[in-house]
Structures are given as C-alpha cells and as structure tokens.
C-alpha cells in the first residue's frame, strides 16, 4: 500500500492527496484517514479537505482543532500516538513529521475499528508527511489553509526563504521560531550542513517595513551564495556587506551573527556584526555569555573588518541566538522580557522533558502574552543543542525532537559514525581552525 501511494504521488496535487491516501489506506485496513495541518503559529490544526468524495469529512468530523487542550494537540506537541478518546479504541491521532519538522497530525480509524498503534501506523504518517512536503511548495491551497490572517509582503518573502523550523541529525538539534509570523519584516535565520560543519546565521535588518524584508532577504541570499562558494566566515560577512552597500548605498543595513560549529570537536567559530552576542545554556543551569568584538552592521559601508572568535562547547550545551525583538521589547507597563527572562524560561521548561520545538512554541506564546499579542519588533530565537562527538541515543533524539517511538530505533543512529572527520569532501570547511580555541 505504501508503495502504491508513492507510485500515485508523482502526478498528484495537494488537493488529491487526502482522497488518494484515504482510498489506499482503507483497502489496507485503515479506514477514515484524515489529515490535519498546523497553522503557521502552531496554535490550530486544520483539516485538509480533498477533491474526492472519499477524502471529504462527514458531519461528525471537526474541521478545526486547538493545539491546546485537545488529544490531537497533545499528539502534535509531544510527537506521540494517542487514542482519540479513552472509550474509542481503534481511533488514533498520529503525529505528522517531515524529518523533525512538525506538520500536523493524522486521524485514523472509526469507532470500533480493530487498529493497533503499531509501527506501520507511524510509517503511514511518515510517508504522508513526505508527500505533503513534496506538494506544499507548489500549492497555494496549503498556504491558505495554514494561515489564519493576512500576511504582509515582507513576511511572504521571509517564510519562502527560511529553512525548516526544526532539524536534527545524530549529534545536533536546531530549532527556531519567528514572530510576529504574519507581519515579520527584517529578521531572518539560516542553517546548513557541509560535512562536519554546521553553518548558522541570524540577521536583523533595520526598519519594520517591506524594505527591511528586502534587506534581510538580500543578506541571507548573499550569505548562502558566498558560503556555498567556499568562503570562510569573514569572507562571507564581507560579501554580504558589499552586496548590501552596493544595493542600498549605505541607507540600509543589517546586524548579524555568523557561526560555524564543528560537530566532531564542538569548536564554535563565529563573528559579530553589530548584533547581540549568543549565549550558551550549560548543564541546564548555567548561562555562559560569549563575546566577540563587534564590527559595524553589514551595509553601513564603513569598511571596518570583523573579528573571528573561537569558543569550545561542551557536550549537551545549548547555543542560543536571538534578535533584540525578543529581549528588548517592552509591555504596556514598560517591563522588558529581557535575556534573563528568555534563558530562565528555556531552563525551566527543559526540566519538563518537552521536545525542543514544543518548548520554543510555548516560549513564543509566552512572549506574545507578555506583550498582549502586540509586538513592535520582530522576535527570533534559534536554539542549537550539540550532543557531543558521539551520537545521541535514539531514545534521546526522539524525546528532544518529538519523533514517534520506533521499534527500529537504531535506524536513526549515525550514518556518519563510520566516516572520517572530513569525508564529505568539504575542502577544509569542516576542519579545525588554525588558532587554538578559547574555552568559555
């Protein structure tokens, strides 16, 4: 059945997906498969309605569910399979994840159905998530379904460029959030892997308008362009600065942190262009403030070179990059959320054992509530956890990301475990820096 779905998917549109899935799944013994997708702010789950009768909901099917306070929402938050109710065995809520990125949930079954929450159910959800990912980029229907209000042009550009909000490998986890989701203008985040190196960047462009969005998009695009041509951090930063200066003649600029993390050693190499420096949460109790002499923001045309800093992370460290919209914004009483408020929240909720994406979802909800749902500046947080030079245990990674438990847990163990440090042929991009690292 899974193979038939793959074969049917090549010419399938998003609107055909629900009916096609439901039809094939019913023949394999899974009646009434319904797909619910999370909205942009991950507050609601919306039913994906297809254009085939078999994919259309009945009168008893809710078309909209809250993430808070529902069983479906709990499956989404925790990445676990739950029965739809205590009295309805045979009906299940199953999380939908593309890699570690949360897309929504499945509802599978009808009252009295003889369905077990086994590995095949997770495999069905995994395949549907991959099919969703392959179709949503070319579907306006998807975008309309997951938006709850109008989006400005700058935000439209930003979300098209952003990588998935959550990503994980065997040794590192990255998760990020941005608000106000529908009005974001000048913030952007990015990450990518090249062999043993994880590239990270955060940008905060001046202003809160479409021009700010253009500046952030141009900075991110220029950074990717130079990085992919083998430029080091300072060369990349200078390339971004030259691109912004050439386009805006010094009238527009962006602050930024650019960083490389070497996965085998935990050496963090980074540079600061007028941005708030990152912090490290160590042992879930200590906040380590990193420092690098800042250069002027990119695009000012001042010609002041940046400085590269090397810091040594320890296994289990959580690196936190953020923009000032999350720390400096004040509520009606004039009280800042502050860096201490940010780190305290993350430390407190880490002890709850929640997946990292769920912790950040709750963080941004708390931040919005602190400011009565009205932000005057973009607020971005990107969190990276480095496990160390050895891979996570599969159960650790499942708990951190919200991946559903699997009987074949070793399948997610490291594919790199048998490879030498620079086996990917990065041309030195993954090698240790020449200068010795400074230990925080």
- Give the fraction of residues assigned to helices: 25-40%
User: In whole angstroms, how far apart are the ends?
Assistant: 53 Å
Q: Please, how many helices?
A: 12
Oligomer: single chain
Order of adjacent strands in the largest pleated sheet: 3-2-1-6-5-4
The major beta sheet can be summarized as:
6 strands, antiparallel
What is the β-strand count? 18
Strand content: 15-25%
Q: How does the helix and strand content classify structurally?
A: alpha+beta
| Radius of gyration of CA atoms, rounded to a whole number | 22 Å
> Ranges with pLDDT <50 over ≥5 residues?
414-440
Order of helices and strands: HHEEEHEEEHHHEEEEHHEEEEEEHHHEHE
Q: Can you describe this structure in just a few lines?
A:
The chain is an alpha+beta fold and 440 residues long. It is built from twelve helices and 18 strands.
Could you explain how this protein is built, in words?
The chain has 440 residues and is an alpha+beta fold. The protein is built from twelve helices and 18 strands. The longest helix has 19 residues, at 210-228. It is globular, with a radius of gyration of 22 Å. Mean pLDDT is 86; it is low at 414-440.
